[in-house]
Amino acid sequence: MTTVARKHEDEAVMAHLLRRAGFGATRDQIDQYVARGYEETVEDLLNPSHGEPEDQDLMDRYFIASVEARSVGHADPQWSWRLATSEKPLEEKIALFWHSLLAVGGIKLDHGLEMLTEIELFRRVGLGSFRTILFEISRNPGMMYWLDNQNSHKDAPNENYGRELLELFSMGIDDMGEGDYTEDDVKTAARAFTGWASKPTPPPFFLGPFPMEFRFDASDHDNGEKSFLGETGNFDGENIIDIIVKKRATARFIAMRLYLYFVSDEPDDEEIERLTDVFQETDGDIRSILRSLFNSDHFKSAAVRFHKVKSPAELVFGAARLTDRFDIPDMDSSLLANQSLFMGQHLLNPPGVEGWHEGEEWVDSGSLIERINFAASELGRVEAPGIRRMIELVELAGDDLQPEEFVEACLDAMGSIDLDNGSKAVLVEHAGQSGSMGSADRIVEMFQLIVSTPDYQYC
Amino acid sequence: MGLENFSYSHTIGIASFLGRGFMNPVDVRLDSEGLLFVLSRSNAANKDVRVSVQTLDSEYMYEFGRWGTDPGQTTQPTAIVLDGDDRVYVPDEFMHNVSIFDREGKFLKRWGEFGAGVGQFNRPSGIAIDSDGNPHIVDHLNARVQKLSPDGKFISSFGTFGTEPGQFNFPWGISIDSEDGIWIADWRNDRVQRFTPDGEFVSMLGSSGSSDGQFDRPSGVHVASDGTVFIADWRNDRVQVFGQDGSHTETLIGDATLSKWCQEFLDVNPEQASWRENAGLFEQEKRFWRPAAIETSSDGLVLIADSCRHRIQIYNRASVLAEV
User: Is the pLDDT of residue B58 over 80?
Assistant: First the structure.
């Protein structure tokens, strides 16, 4: 490989990493990350310093109702702002992953503040041990309410949480609906979680919502002996989680979900088995699994680039971040979550306990129009600093570019993205048919055409 | 610990998207006849903004300035003040202007546009009126205070961005004392600064923190007619009180009881009342959550906009009561 080709490949791989571990990156950011090095960038992404963002006070000031968010709609401005501006993109991306996998539905809960608390929980522990994640979500008052553990008593256990814990949150089921556990294991898990609930709070209708809190009621907990997945003891919920996380089925299920989320919509059995091994070797350390995933030749290969459908959140916040126009919370930033909703992903309100169905299911004729219109609108913001910089980069590529060079310069300026040869040929033909390619209007028009291609729906 | 110089009186308010009640009240003012004007901020996208008018006995009267960008509407209102003729001024940080209404809520005019020039604003926030009837507007992203004439003509301005004395960092509230001294809640510098009527720096109160005399993003400042200084210590969820000499005298953390409107709501919704009883968070219910602004009356009332609890908590000042 020539030096130029090597450089191009390094940039393409880095751009790929930043699309998957975040929401994409600008051309300048890619250059900075390439200079830092691939593995070093992976480490930076995997090890964000967690804490209150410096601009949290501004967010709260301009959107005071989101401080005590009574509904998902009131909470939206908070997460929209983080998704649009966070400099810790994997922290937000992993929160989005767990938000769909360990889904709590905002409509039933009807407590925007608790939904934000849950997202913050995922930011805090989402890259750590899966045991911790499972333990903390099992003590999450919103989850307890959502899956009816309020109604699970030692004399009458409610199986909802125990069942979803096994089926959807950890061990999973196969295509035939079978898991590596029995119906008796579900019932035992339900018994072990009796007494785990959320504290009652006053209704929100006169003073607004109150923060939810977890409550363990020892008097309502089943202390009897239990047999679960082949082990017997006086198990409580924590013991159940300890047993679950040691099972290979759990390791495989989480490896599969991470693969589908970060790598490809089509599972690769060999790679998933390898990640399953990493899960078991590291006691389910999500950071270690992702390190292995991102650094693998499989992840870096051209075969998986642009073969994963962007979720609405990835498309909306990816395009918005390209504009680099959000330096202070405002009405525009607060409404970005609405765009994701229009495309089928209502953030803070997954459609059910299964979360969102991803991949090709994201796109239908209606959502496709929303996706194209939104992306074209964002890329048409000629006053936005990010768009101005992209125009400048194309102009710097030369003032007498040939159509093919012009299209390549635009693709590069947009963050080293690529199109298949068919789409590219159409754009090249268009570029060659109309006047000067050097004007800002023509450059922006090409940006908008690029985001209107089918290829742009993939990351 | 009991209060030394104050006694809790009562609370007005209930969370409400329109009509009777408030949604994130960020400012509160009394008019010349003692009517209570409350500005509900809400989230702009939720469209529950408005100025509502009620008596101190919780009799709801009317509202105006609801959501929108047309004349007579507000989108992201930040503060209110009434002039000597009870005209109501409402800065709006989305439209970068100030709308003016008569006492009944009839729209009269609006001033300003986006920009950094004279008479232009970049997210105006607090507003106060001096003894000559001149509005002073905190032009917060321009890090300055603009003084306008009663008919909206630019007179002067002071302030620049920074952390030095006399500079501002996302200032919010403003109060003008009985000698036309200007007090600014220098929000992101965690301090309150005092200026002469001409904008010359005089002194400042506070530093970052949660001890007495420290602040975490002070949003509102109010200087009572006797010189007592009230500061809404926004992220510390309290109101601190200072004497004329700048010494800290007392801290209010919220003592709310159920308002008349809340009690009526619970009376006709017994399930909700039962739910509340079962939760039993009565102490938590009393406390401020992001108190944003303060108003006082000549007869000793102290009114505090408790923005995330959708109510106005009202105290009596013992010293003023004794004089009255």
Answer: yes
Written in H, E and C, the secondary structure of chain A is CCHHHHHHHHHHHHHHHHHHCCCCCCHHHHHHHHHHCHHHHHHHHHCCCCCCCCCHHHHHHHCHHHHCCCCHHHHHHHHHHHHHHCCCHHHHHHHHHHHHHCCCCHHHHCCHHHHHHHHHHHHHHCCCEHHHHHHHHHCCHHHHHHCCHHHCECCECCCHHHHHHHHHHHCCCCCCCCCCCCHHHHHHHHHHCCCEEECCCCCHHHHCCCCCCEEECHHHCCCCCEEECCEEECCCHHHHHHHHHCCHHHHHHHHHHHHHHHCCCCCCHHHHHHHHHHHHHCCCEHHHHHHHHHCCHHHHCHHHCCCCECCHHHHHHHHHHHHCCCCCCCHHHHCHHHHHHHCCCCCCCCCCCCCCCCHHHHCCHHHHHHHHHHHHHHHCCCCCHHHHHHHHHHHHCCCCCCHHHHHHHHHHHCCCCCCCHHHHHHHHHHHHHCCCCCCHHHHHHHHHHHHCCHHHHEC
B1, part of any domain: no
Q: Which domain holds residue B297?
A: 6-323
Q: How many Cβ atoms are within 10 Å of B268's Cβ, its own excluded?
A: 9
What integer pLDDT is reported at residue B211 of this predicted model? Answer: 98
CB contact under 8 A, A210 and B43: no
User: CATH number of the domain that B68 lies in?
Assistant: 2.120.10.30
Contact residues on chain A for B275, CB-CB shorter than 8 A: 200, 202-203
For residue A367, give both structure tokens.
């959502």
Please report, as a single letter, which amino acid is at residue B170. Answer: F
pLDDT-based confidence at residue B138 (cuts at 50, 70, 90): very high
Q: How many CB atoms lie within 10 A of CB A359?
A: 14
Task: Report the residue of chain B nearest A73, measured CA to CA.
Answer: B46
Does B235 contact A57 at a Cβ distance shorter than 8 Å? Answer: yes
pTM of the model: 0.95
Query: Does residue A438 have a pLDDT over 80?
Result: no
The reported pLDDT for the residue numbered B322 is: 59
Chain A residue at shortest CA distance from B95: A331
- Give the residue from A55, A56, A59, A64 with the most B CB atoms within 10 Å of its CB, the best one to mutate: A64
Q: Do A423 and A455 touch, CB atoms closer than 8 A? A: yes
The CA distance from B15 to the nearest CA of chain A, in Å, is 5
Q: Indicate if the pLDDT at residue A334 is higher than 80.
A: yes
Asked if the model's pLDDT at residue B254 lies above 60, the reply is yes
Six-digit token string for A74: 């009131």
For residue range A126-170, what is the model confidence (pLDDT) as tens digits? 999 999 999 999 999 999 999 999 999 999 999 999 999 999 999
Binned at pLDDT 50, 70 and 90, residue A7 comes out as confident
Option in B24, B272, B281 nearest A64 (CB): B24
Instruction: Give the pLDDT band of residue A433 (cuts 50, 70, 90).
Output: confident
Is there a contact between B15 and A199 if contact means CB atoms under 8 Å apart? no
8 Å CB contact of A57 and B217: yes
Encoded tokens for B212: 């007495």
The neighbour count for residue A2, using CB atoms within 10 Å, is 7
- State how many domains chain B has: 1
CB contact under 8 A, B45 and A207: no
Using the Cβ of A145 and the Cβ atoms of chain B, whether some distance falls under 8 Å is answered with: no
Nearest CB to A206: which of B141, B262, B308? B262
ipTM of the complex: 0.96
Q: Which of residues 62-101 of A touch B (CB under 8 A)?
A: 62-68, 70, 73-74, 76-77
Q: Tell me if B279 and A335 make a contact (CB, 8 A cut-off).
A: no
Distance CA A265, CA B322 (A): 75
